[in-house]
Amino acid sequence: MKRGKIIIGLFVVLLMTILGGCTENSQLYKASVDYSIADGIIILDEPARSPEQQSMIEFRCAPMERVRVGFVGLGMRGPGAVERFTYIDGVEINGLCDKYEERAERCQVYLERAGMPKAKVYSGDEGYKALCESEDIDLVYIATPWQLHVEVAVYAMNHGKHVAIEVPSANTVEECWQLVDAAERNKVHCTILENCCYDHFELTTLNMAQQGLFGEIIHAEGAYIHNLEPYWQHYADNWRLEYNQAHNGDIYATHGIGPNCQALNIHRGDKLDYLVAMSTKSINGAKLTKELMGMDECKQGDQINTLIRTHNGCTIDMQHNVMTPRPYSRMYQLVGTEGFANKYPVSGYTFKFDQIKSVASDENGMPDIEALDHHTFAPVEVVKQMTELYKHPVQLQLVDGVPLQEYSLSIGGHGGMDYIMDYRLVYCLRNGLPLDMDVYDAAEWSSMGELTRISIENGSKPVKVPDFTRGDWDKVDGLTFYFAE
């Protein structure tokens, strides 16, 4: 009997050891929020919407006669935004804020050139708080280093301000939920400043997709491939290299995934389901961080690859590489049952119609498998006609009697797409319309950074993409860009 108790006791200890080992191993799945694992998929907890919050799907605020703007972060990207806003009607620039006062003061020149009054200057580590508390600000435009995006945005929304945040808008899933909750609780807009959604190729291609030219889209590709070697030392306080050194994963996914999600109607009829990511080792990154930071490790792999599957069975292929001398590429690509679009490295369209050349056949009618002319893009003349015919309504929107696409080229900003992005933001606010990109876009696209890291650090296990809409992803049928009647 005594021996039996000993055996049972040993069995219990062994079982507890096994269970304890499982619990200990589960701690390897580092995440900013709690999680569970089901059928081998890492599932992050999704907080419920509290009673004082409301869904922001198709949210409209009261129309504004004037949009009073305050800019926070005036290093590399911020000054260009200030200058662009001086070319938009119905704007008052009332606040300029940067950690370093001289940077904010330098932006006064853009207001002076435009004949606008000087803006109040805010500076210091917490200068943004006074700007957000100011009663003469409606919109806070955030172009700080990534690490400060959510801190500034949540503070602004808690003070009743609409916010527009540079990419990525957040760095962790927890931060993404902070943006969603703050927008839903305060009933204010929170948009992501994803300029690539307004690129002329992407806009035209999106309109083609919405008009059915590609049939049913089943696959998309996107990337941020940009050798940043000439720029690392120009980021204030070395913030960007420090972030790459400390974080693996696709930490800058929004340029690629944003236009793809719009074409696939993500959270407007479909949703991102789960992803799998993997990383190469760090060679150039490790060398760079050793030279500039004296660090022996760079967690960011030189190349990151991610595959995503949507609820409706579509797939997205994403890449991230800022460390090797690859030619610049955002690799925007749509694959449909009736057509194909590609921007990098070669721009073009292919359709399952008569635009492509016929295929030579032998005496038995067998197509010549060596004839590759039918495997290439549609003829240049055809593509030119179709891109004119299928320009997006946003591109044709008139500004002082000039189509917005043409007008934007005269202002600049990544070929005009930055100006279109800013113009549409102000236009929708002034007319009380839903924004082209909402808080759920900001959260979903930005969450890729942490979700891919979790997958990579855990043997490329699949990770469920949180539903930031909390079940409202199919309440709207398709993406709409709104216009005043």
Structure description:
The protein is an alpha/beta fold and 485 residues long. It has a domain at 197-359 and 366-393 and 438-464: Dihydrodipicolinate Reductase, domain 2. It has 17 helices and 18 strands. It has helices spanning 2-26, 78-85, 101-106, 108-113, 127-133, 149-158, 173-186, 200-210, 239-246, 254-263, 284-293, 380-389, 393-396, 404-411, 417-431, 439-446, 448-457, and strands at residues 35-38, 41-44, 67-72, 91-98, 120-123, 139-142, 162-165, 190-192, 217-225, 272-279, 304-310, 315-321, 333-336, 339-342, 348-351, 398-399, 402-403, 463-464. The strands form four sheets. It has an eight-stranded mixed beta sheet. Strand 11 and strand 12 (315-321) form a beta hairpin. Helix 5 (127-133) packs parallel to helix 6 and helix 14 (404-411) crosses helix 15. The longest helix is centred in the first third of the chain and has 25 residues, at 2-26. The radius of gyration is 25 Å and the shape is globular. The model is unreliable at 5-26 (pLDDT under 50).
List its salient traits.
485 residues, alpha/beta, Dihydrodipicolinate Reductase, domain 2, eight-stranded mixed beta sheet, six-stranded parallel beta sheet, 17 helices
A few lines on this structure:
The chain is of the alpha/beta class. The protein has helices at residues 2-26, 78-85, 101-106, 108-113, 127-133, 149-158, 173-186, 200-210, 239-246, 254-263, 284-293, 380-389, 393-396, 404-411, 417-431, 439-446, 448-457, and strands at residues 35-38, 41-44, 67-72, 91-98, 120-123, 139-142, 162-165, 190-192, 217-225, 272-279, 304-310, 315-321, 333-336, 339-342, 348-351, 398-399, 402-403, 463-464.
